[in-house]
Amino acid sequence: MITAGIDIGQRNTKAALLENGGRIVAKVSARTGYDFEKAAAALYDECLALAGLDSDDVSYVVATGFGRYRLPFRDANVTDITANSRGAKFLFPGTACFLDVGAGSARAAKIDANGRILKFRATEKCAAGGGGFLEKIAFYTGVDIADLGRIALTSTQPVSLSTVCSVLAESEVINFVTQEVPMENILLGACNSVVGRVLLTLRQVGTDPEVTLTGGMNLNVAIPKILEEKLKLKPNASADLYYAGAIGAAVLGFRRVSRTRGSPGMGG
User: Fold this and answer.
1) Are residues 204 and 255 in the same domain?
2) How many CB atoms lie within 10 A of CB 42?
3) Total-model pTM
4) Residue 16: beta bridge partners?
5) Would you state the pLDDT for residue 268?
6) How far is residue 11 CA from its own chain's centroid?
C-alpha cells in the first residue's frame, strides 16, 4: 500500500511516499512560490516519477502545512504540528518532544509514545521568522543559504544579536555589515539569535529526555550544534527530518486506510 504526504509550507513544499507505512519510497522538495496548487501538483508528479509510480498506485493522500487546504486532490488534511509529531516519531522512535522552525515561526510540542500531542507552544509574532530571518541574513551577507551554517561554524568571535525580536536583530546585522565585521561572526551571531528565540518556546513544553529537530533547520549544520550546547544534550537531527511533515502525513494516511480496510497497522 502506497500513501502520500504533501507538506505545503510558506517557503518550500515537500512530498513523500511510503510503502505500507514503514518504508520511504521517495521524497522531494521545491520552492512553493505563489501558486500553491501548481507547486504541490508538480512536486507530487515528480515524487511519483522518482518512485516509478502513477497516481492510481497511491491509496491515500494527506496534505499538511500552511497551504494544506489548497490541495484539491487530497483525501484528508492535518495540521503541521500533528504531521511533524508523527514524522519525528517515525524517524526517531524515542522522540519525547520536538522543535519545528519554519519560515515564519517556531513550534514545539511534547508528545506521547504514539506521537500524540500532550503540550504545544508556538512563538509569539514578535519572535517569529527563524527560517525567513536567516534567509535575509544570507542576502545581506551575500552567502548562499545552503552554506550559511557551515561558514558560521568557522567563527571564533560571534556578534551578539537580539534573541527577543527578529526585526531588531535584522537591524543589528545591517549595522555589522556596514562596519565590515567578519562575515562568519555575523552568521554565527544570527544562528545564535534564532536558537535563543526558539529555545524560549521549546522550554515551555520541556526538553527531556529526547528532543528532535524537524523542518528546514536540519539543513543548517550550525543549528543542531548550538542547540546541543544550549540544551546540554544532543538533539536528533538529520536530512530526512527536513521532510518530517510530509513523512508524518503519509504515516497518518496509512493508518487511516488500515483502519478503514481492517488491515494490520503499525501500532500507535
Assistant:
1) no
2) 15
3) 0.91
4) 5, 27
5) 37
6) 11
